[in-house]
Amino acid sequence: MQSINKTLSLLIMLTPIVLLSGCSSEQKSMQTIAGSDPLEIPQNDSVARRFRESTPQNPTAVESAIELSEKYATLSEEAATLRHENEGIVARNKQLEAQAAALDSQLRQTRKELAEANDLLVEMSIELNNWKTDILGFRDEMRDAETAQLETLFRILKVLGGQVDAGPASSDGTGGVGSAASSSSRSYRE
After folding, report:
1. Residue 40 included in any domain
2. In this predicted model, what pLDDT tens digit does every residue of 135-177 receive, in sequence order?
3. Phi, psi for 36 (deg, rounded to 5)
4. Would 71 be classed as within a structural domain?
5. From CA 151, how far away is CA 174, in angstroms rounded?
6. What string of H, E and C letters represents the secondary structure of the chain?
7. Does 181 map to a domain?
8. Is the Cα torsion angle 174, 178, 179, 180 positive or negative in sign?
9. Cα 127–133–137 angle (5° rounding)?
10. Which of 54, 57, 37, 58 is nearest to 46 (CA)?
11. Exposed (0-12), middle (13-18) or buried (19+): which is 102, by Cβ within 10 Å?
12. Contact 177, 147 (CB under 8 A)
């Protein structure tokens, strides 16, 4: 186990050295090969530049480290911004949940009051219908009492010897009593 740890630590320490030496040796060997060719034909600078630009330039370890640290810095800033936005969203969510809970309790209370008001309204409607029935029944009783009173007056007039005109009588008999009462009041005045 210790030998594996030693091997890994040695490998990790030697990797940057190999990378640094490998990058510089490749550039030197390319320059020596290109500069040592005796059969080289003089070429135009633009042609030479074109081929040099097309070859990928490997950045050095320092440039790679700088580039990676810049990327890390931008990503850290983005992460901080996103973390801040997330905290704002979480706070807003908690606020909305609290509002929803308050509104839910108000909704339950309103529904309860509405049910009570509906029950009261149904009860009042029943009482109103009973009142209408009582009033209409009372009207019929009043009509019956007035009819009986007029008939009694008509009989009294007949007994006293008043003259009663047989006016137009209705088919239900109440018109006859009404016309008899009006005619008897006329004859009573005479």
Report:
1. no
2. 877 888 888 899 999 999 999 988 888 776 655 444 444 444 4
3. -95, 0
4. no
5. 10
6. CHHHHHHHHHHHHHHHHHHHHHHHHHHHHHHHHHHCCCCCCCCCHHHHHHHHHHCCCCCCHHHHHHHHHHHHHHHHHHHHHHHHHHHHHHHHHHHHHHHHHHHHHHHHHHHHHHHHHHHHHHHHHHHHHHHHHHHHHHHHHHHHHHHHHHHHHHHHHHHHCCCCCCCCCCCCCHHHHHHHHHHHHHHHHC
7. yes
8. positive
9. 145
10. 54
11. exposed
12. yes
Domain for residue 150, yes or no?
A: yes
What's the total number of domains in the chain?
Answer: 1
pLDDT, tens only, 153-164: 999 988 888 776
Which domain does 182 fall in, by range?
137-189
Question: For residue range 13-48, what is the model confidence (pLDDT) as tens digits?
Answer: 777 776 666 655 555 555 555 555 544 555 566 666
